[in-house]
Design brief:
The mean pLDDT is 95. This protein is globular. It is α/β, with parallel strands linked by helices and 324 residues long. The protein starts with a strand and ends with a helix. The longest helix has 17 residues. The protein has a 10-stranded mixed β-sheet with strand order 1-8-2-3-7-4-6-5-9-10, sandwiched between helices. The protein binds adenosine monophosphate and magnesium ion (MG). Magnesium ion binds next to loops. The site of adenosine monophosphate (AMP) has 21 residues, from β6 and β10.
């Protein structure tokens, strides 16, 4: 398969390019596109055959359900059974990096929801993504546009690297804003809202808006969010976590890579230093891939000092990259 890579203007997406990609989606093909979190690999969420192609292109386990991306709040009601709390969150945080898990309507194919009776929905905050979803006239199922288990792509060339020859089209809308995936919460029971995956929307903002604490999923709900079981986001070399006040890991620092905010006292072979937590989250996945390509023997990643804001999601990605 030939993969087309087309540049699109983020703030003024060219209608002819959007309709070309929308035609790919409508005819059951695969189109990668930017969102504010990471690049997504999209297919018609209501077409089981098209959704099957996503799993094949990524090598993704078929019990790991997909997020349905929509272009308006009203579209949610045609896919899931909402409730007052969920609608409140949609009004406050959409478009944005917050995914809501709710009871699925029958029109969502089982393949899209990994056989579950719930489905995950989100309205992304990116003009290209919204234009593509609207032009396709169908919700777009889209996991990150990388080979399963690898760090998520935050620019179109990385998508091309992983997906060339496997998908029909890639829309290049430049670098993403957030850099890590959306926060996923389960609002099935509005009395007991669960944090399934920390991410681009901070826990504090969600809790303040609900005036309620998000609970940790028990073992039953972990089974209901199978994605959280798999090793994820990982470079091909070991990732070692370092807490700033601890001794530096006992490794060959000349051949190692480092990524973090604090400057280590030693001269590490290759280092990527960020200003703050948001910056670190934005550059984590690209940094993993860059250090790996530079041939370092392992990557030492600084453990974010605080879990507030993007810190919780960033900690989650780093600990999964390090093997859990
Ligand atoms: P990804 O598409 O790889 O960014 O991951 C999507 C995340 O959403 C995974 O952690 C999935 O397990 C989770 N997810 C998607 N649909 C559901 C659902 N119906 N119930 C619970 N978690 C879900
Ligand atoms: Mg992913």
């Amino acid at each position: 398969m030939m993969t087309e890579l087309l540049q699109v203007s983020k703030w003024n997406p060219e209608p002819e390019i959007i309709s070309r990609a929308a035609e790919v989606i409508r005819s059951g093909g695969l189109a990668a596109f930017p969102t504010e979190t990471v690049y997504g690999l999209g297919a018609d969420a209501l077409n089981p055959e098209a959704v099957g192609k996503i799993y094949a292109a990524k090598g993704r386990p078929s019990d790991n359900p997909l997020i349905l991306h929509i272009s308006s709040i009203e579209q949610a009601a045609s896919l899931v059974h909402t409730n007052a709390e969920a609608e409140r969150l949609m009004r406050i945080f959409w478009p944005g990096p917050l995914t809501l898990v709710l009871p699925a309507r029958e029109n969502i194919p089982l393949r899209t929801r990994g056989g579950l009776d719930t489905a995950a929905v989100r309205m992304p905050d990116n003009p290209i993504a919204l234009a593509l979803i609207a032009a396709s006239g169908t919700p777009i199922a889209a996991p990150s546009a990388n080979i399963s288990g690898r760090p998520s792509p935050t620019d179109a060339l990385t998508v091309y690297h992983d997906m060339n020859g496997r998908i029909d089209i890639i829309l290049d809308g430049g670098s993403v804003d957030v850099g890590i995936e959306s926060t996923v919460i389960d609002v099935t029971d509005p009395q007991k809202i669960l944090m399934l995956r920390p991410g681009g929307m901070s826990r504090e903002l969600i809790e303040d808006s609900l005036n309620m604490r998000l609970e940790l999923p028990g073992t039953i709900s972990i089974k209901r969010s199978p994605g959280t079981r798999y090793k994820h986001y990982a470079p091909n070399i070991p990732v070692i976590i370092w807490k700033k006040d601890n001794d530096f890991p006992d490794i060959n620092i000349n051949s190692a890579g480092y990524i973090g905010i604090a400057e280590p006292a030693y001269r590490i072979g290759k280092s990527i230093i960020f200003h703050d937590t948001a910056n670190y989250a934005h550059g984590l996945f690209a940094g993993f891939r860059k250090l790996e390509a530079e041939g370092v023997s392992c990557i030492v990643a600084e453990w974010p000092e605080s879990s507030s804001g993007l810190g919780e999601g960033l900690r989650d990605r780093i600990s999964r990259a390090a093997g859990g």
